[in-house]
Amino acid sequence: MYSQLFGSYLLRKGAVTPEQLTDAITKVSTSRIKLGTLAIHAGIMAASEVDEVCFLQTREDKRFGEIAIERGYLTDDQVRDLLNSQSPDYLLLGQCLVDENIISNTDLQQHMLDYQTENELYDMDLNLENKDKIKRLIERFFMIAEVPVTEYSILYMELMFNNLVRFIGDDFTPLTPVPCTEYPVNYCVSQALHGKINCISRIDMTPDVAVQFASRYAKEDFSEFDEYVQASIEDFINLHNGLFIVNMSNQYSTELLLDPPSVDEGEVLTMPPASFLIPIVYPFGTIHLLTSLYGEME
User: Fold this and answer.
1) Domains in the chain: how many in total?
2) Do 201 and 267 belong together in one domain?
């Protein structure tokens, strides 16, 4: 989730456009992290030093590490440690933006520092998807947007982001959440949960985006918006909410009931209290998550 939320941060700061970010995200899976990017992240080389070594590579047939050692920027041990390190996923996204000349190494260095400071990630230990850090990032994601959410909303959205990664793909960026009172739908699948807390969860998209979404979910190559595409989207939201119910039972000993999915098309929906909207941008288009989670647990 670091990469997706870092991308959202860059958009919010105006460092990239949605098109630039989407293009960079598509290149992440085929890119390899560079030693210079790792050295910037580790705080042992400045962006200007990395730029200098990269320039010298155009004049000398040597690896980055060799030149950095010769210039006194790195030691043999540091090069070995960096090459053996596990880098956080958002670092590769930043590198792709640098490679595409969208931002500079200096920009990347500053954005990473600001991102870590804003989200209180002071220990720099972003190598693993630490659950506490992910929860804090999602809390900050809503706090900065001034969208009030509960502890259970955070739990719900953390699971939603994870399920998008697992079943659709990690090449997405969540845009800033906004409160929502009314919403004109395209093809919208809804599902309600009842109990000590109540939730209405909706996922809305245009038919052409639905075809691509369902193709990824079902791992089939759908070519038209038909009943198989519709069933796949209903199955996704039903699977997600089913997992949420399991989590609520396991973590809070709270049992919730789940209604069958329902569909709305071409209408303007009036949203329940405490509703918010999050656009999720994929390379194939944008899906819209609408969630209303309210009520108190005993």
Assistant:
1) 2
2) yes
Cα–Cα dist 124/128, whole Å: 11
Most confident residue range from 76-85, 134-143, 198-207? 198-207
141 in any annotated domain: no
Does 252 lie in the same domain as 121? Answer: no
The model carries a pTM of 0.77
Written as six digits, the tokens of 76 are 């043999």
CB atoms within 10 A of CB 15: 20
- Both tokens of 116, joined, read 């870590």
What is the pLDDT, as a whole number, of residue 125?
A: 47
90 and 159 belong to one structural domain: no
Quick check: is 140 in a domain? no
The residue that leads in pLDDT, 227 or 29, is: 227
**Residue 79 and residue 156 share a domain:** no
Looking at residue 298, its pLDDT comes to: 40
Of the ranges 57-71, 118-132, 283-297, which is most confident? 57-71
Residue-range definition of the domain harbouring residue 24: 2-132
Whether 137 maps to a domain, the answer reads: no
* Residue 36 included in any domain: yes
Query: What is residue 128's predicted lDDT score, i.e. its pLDDT?
Result: 43
